[in-house]
Design brief:
Blueprint: E1 6-12, H1 19-26, H2 30-36, E2 54-58, E3 66-71, H3 78-84, H4 89-95, E4 109-112, E5 114-118, H5 125-132, H6 136-142, E6 159-163, E7 170-174, E8 185-191, E9 197-204, E10 209-217, E11 226-232, E12 242-250, E13 257-266
Parallel strand pairs: 1-3
Antiparallel strand pairs: 1-2, 3-4, 5-6, 7-8, 8-11, 9-10, 9-12, 12-13
Helix pairs in contact: 3-4
Length: about 270
Amino acid sequence: MPISPGTHLMVTVLPGDTLYAIANRYGTNVPAITQANALYPPVTDPGLIYPGQLLLLRLPGMSQTSAVLYQVAQGDNLFRIGERFSAGADMLASLNQLQDPNLIRVGQQLFVPAFVYEVAPGDTFYGISRRFGASMSELARANRGRPGWSPDVLYPGFQLAVPYPSSTNIAVFEPMPGATIASGQQLSGVARAFEANVLYQLRDASGRSVIPERFVTAAEGAPAFGRFNAELRFAQTPAARTGTLLVYTRSARDGSIQDMVEVPVRF
């Protein structure tokens, strides 16, 4: 699965920008930008860009994880940015340690809960959606305004921003959706949970409970978002090749499940 490692930046093309100027500004190169955004025929004339378009760039560095930064553009606010990446404004404020979520500035780079997938030959929009558990509308929103984006035609090498599985109050960063996991795999994310209590379980596609309901305590309780980490220790051997990791909270009032996040995995 070609997850693109490293830190990526989603940036808005400004009046007067050229690919060379953008590449020079962010320490990358024109061929890399061209490939990642499908800036070639039949999508567009070679290297043609317009003000207001969004480009995805890979920043210098050798990080093995895949992360996405979004550069604030004129007219942006946290609500709109969060909507693009299927995350709430409160979560974005917490992830970026913003003291006042109403105060963001043009040009500021914000961490957003997304990773980058490089389209492979034979990929389809539907297949990518199923693999990562992101709806087609979520993928469309995250990549809206990019010159090479189309739900009908995906070009090999095009780099697709994919939101991490999340709900209003929980985001799961590890394991990555679609990853092959084994007992001992790390579970990590952020949650806004009553008394910092986050619950999880793992089921395979046959319905077997590979991990029964267990809990992990986040670093902070509601109303703050706290990071959580746990080891996924299997109680039973999976009986199928695929499964779903469920991460959620329960209501303090009636015990009902809230903020369910579903992460598709393989065994």
